[in-house]
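Hey, I was hoping to borrow your eyes for a little while. I've been staring at a protein lately and its backbone has me curious. You're getting the sequence in one-letter code plus the fold written as tokens. Would you mind checking whether the tokens look sensible for this chain? Here's the protein in full, and shout if anything looks odd to you:
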Amino acid sequence: MSQLVSRALFDQVMVPNYNPQQFIPVRGHNSRVWDQQDKEYIDFAGGIAVSALGHTHPSLITALKNQAEKLWHLSNTCTNEPALRLALKLCNASFAEKIFFCNSGAEANEAAFKLARKYAYDNFGEHKHEIIAFEQAFHGRTLFTVSVGGQPKYRKGFEPVPAGISHVPFNDIEALKAAISEKTCAVVMEPIQGEGGIIPAKPGFLEQVRALCDQHNALLVLDEIQTGVGRTGKLYAYMHSNIEPDILTSAKALGGGFPIAAMLTTDKCAQSFGFGTHGSTYGGNPLACAVAEALLDEVNQPELLELVTQKSQLFFAELEKINQKHHIFKALRGKGLLIGAELIEPWHGKAAKFLAQAKDQGLMMLVAGPNVLRFAPSLIIPDEDIKLGMQRLEQAIDQLIKIGPENC
């Protein structure tokens, strides 16, 4: 006799590093999700910027089914057709000349940071090993990536962490100038800080960082785990600027929900990952690459990317309407469909309360720290779902305002 699958079972059998909400989604279509009780939710979360084409997109289903009937897995002693096709398309669509596939954003960043150090070692010597990143950044949960990430709360209890890593304030070029040196092998940054509160790089900041890296023979590593694959209205967010990185990491939306990640780099840098220097058992898995190829074919189209910009404008307009009525947001920021709404000071520390109340109203959304509501829906979310979701968000805000921040 099988045991009832409920939220209580999580507490019984799962490690308590997560605290999921009390409902369990069981099916989804486009930008709507239904739970075990068949309650409907509008999905403004997108699996944390993952479900770029929403739920059960027919192109992804077809790609997965077709590949599932051919070949699931090979060791990395062989390559496969889906991986090679996907790698070629990523190269053709970006600055990249070489690709490394793995399973998650953290793994892609781990590979990027290792490659940066190995490149510096090969070309300049062992003294050039220091990595500079930014405060409030997030780059993953492995020991190396959590060390490069600029949020001490994620490192606490796991020390000692890898050495040779420092952090400077984001968007502060003078602080970076003071920190960078001939020992610096790489500067690592998100074009828009995600977990740090949806903080975009200031206009011109990427170009200034690129110039400093060139001056000091340091690599520029862009973490586009969250901003990549159409999220900002370009295939990758660096494309809004006039620069190219040396290394870029991509995951989340790349597989539309199927686990896959990629590190993109140049021929020059790739040479330092010679035979046997790095690897991944599942990296380049045929199933994952087939799905990602289908997703890339859908997303990397001018019409869809323009649609992201249009839907972003609607999102911001609807949030402005809510704010004009309730005066709940201190700032609205972001680009494309990666949007943050910072709460006013009396509500600081209460962002999770909005997430829970929105759930009760039939809306799935996110937070980016304790003060910011985060929205990262499907890139093709219907306009009517945006408007309905905003109605539900306003209902949630109404309920919380009645309670008041002091009672939450």
Remarks:
- The first strand starts at residue 25 and ends at 29.
- The chain has a mean pLDDT of 96.
- Residues 302-326 form the longest helix (25 residues).
- The chain has two domains: 7-56+302-407, 71-299.
